[in-house]
Amino acid sequence: MIQGLLGRKVGMTQVFNAVGEAIPVTVIRTGPCVVTQIRTIERDGYESVQLGFEEVPARKITRPQQGHLIDLIKGQSLDQDAERPPKAGMLLRHLREFRADNITDHQVGDVVTVELFQPGQFIDVSGISKGRGFAGVVKRHHFRGGPRTHGQSDRLRAPGSIGGGTAPGRVWKGTRMAGRMGGKRKTIQSLEVVETIPERHLLLVRGAVPGPAEGLLEIRFAAKITRTTAQQ
């Protein structure tokens, strides 16, 4: 079994459970993903399955990536050259690798859908967080700011001292200061799968996930919690 899929964030809403409780959920359009390559220990030094997501026209991806996904030589089939590795046969925008329990269970061209996940399971969701632009220390690092009285006039949201003059005589690397906020890879762990809608390729997950609407997401089985441990 492949350990994850690719998807895009649709947005947030709420659903109601059997007793009428409102559950905040994020809707993720998950898959379908196509197996584009099988990584083996003999050839690559490790084992994984490469998945492709979102079919696009040729002008949307580079020529080398096209050659990785389809046969670019007209009139030549894969059967004519058994030494060449099989190809997916379709152009896909995003390629990512996922671990698999047994790579021999998968072949290039296989399609993996949202049915990989079931309600009650727990997943980890990774994505690029929303970019907030240049932000001060109060917004970026939750500093309290300076005093609002005693004669000061412009230190309300200032960082204060950033280092001593004599010792260490410099600013320590990593000191929290103003700067660009967001736009980084983030992972939210152990989110519960509330519902799947296979006919629409939708996955409903309890809580929020990183990134804006239509942001690309990587969905994997949870590393720290399983359905069994959650019920104990």
Task: Map the helices and strands.
Layout: E1 4-16, E2 22-30, E3 33-39, H1 41-44, E4 48-55, H2 63-69, E5 92-98, E6 111-112, E7 122-128, E8 133-135, H3 137-141, E9 179-181, E10 185-197, E11 202-206, E12 216-221, H4 227-231
Antiparallel strand pairs: 1-2, 1-12, 2-11, 3-4, 3-6, 4-5, 7-10, 7-12, 8-9, 10-11
Summed up, what is this model?
The protein has helices at 41-44, 63-69, 137-141, 227-231; strands spanning 4-16, 22-30, 33-39, 48-55, 92-98, 111-112, 122-128, 133-135, 179-181, 185-197, 202-206, 216-221.
Description:
It is a single chain. With about 230 residues, the protein is mainly beta. The protein has one domain: Elongation Factor Tu (Ef-tu), domain 3 (Beta Barrel), CATH 2.40.30. The protein has 4 helices and 12 strands, in the order βββαβαββββαββββα. It has helices spanning about 40-45, 65-70, 135-140, 225-230; strands spanning about 5-15, 20-30, 35-40, 50-55, 90-100, 110, 120-130, 135, 180, 185-195, 200-205, 215-220. A 6-stranded antiparallel β-barrel has the order 1-2-11-10-7-12. It has a 4-stranded antiparallel sheet with strand order 5-4-3-6. Strands 8-9 form a two-stranded antiparallel ribbon. The radius of gyration is 24 Å and the shape is extended.
